[in-house]
Design a protein that fits this description.
The protein is mainly beta. It has 1 helix and 5 strands, in the order E-E-E-E-H-E. Strands 3-2-1-4-5 form a 5-stranded antiparallel β-sheet. The mean pLDDT is about 90.
């Protein structure tokens, strides 16, 4: 798991069937690197979240058949960089 900040929504009008209608977010880790994650939680931009990556990311989705390797698992209520 890693702590990241949600930078923005990512809108994709065409995607592979394995992503279904999953919400996508652009995340930034504390080193400044950007990532794309599926978001089953519904996090708004600016919030800190914790994520699951690799095969655990698929199990964090409501449907484990969704093809993802990074999923937002929850919103962090209090976090200071």
């Amino acid at each position: 798991m890693e702590i990241m900040r949600v930078k923005d929504d990512l809108v994709c009008t065409r995607r592979v069937p394995g992503l279904q209608a999953s919400s996508l977010r652009i995340l930034q880790n504390q080193s400044g690197s950007l990532f794309v994650a599926t978001d089953p939680v519904g996090v708004p931009p600016g919030k800190w979240v914790f994520t699951a990556s690799g095969s655990a990311a698929r199990w964090a989705m409501p449907d484990a058949k969704v093809m993802t390797d990074l999923t937002i698992c929850g919103i962090i209520d209090h976090w200071e960089e």
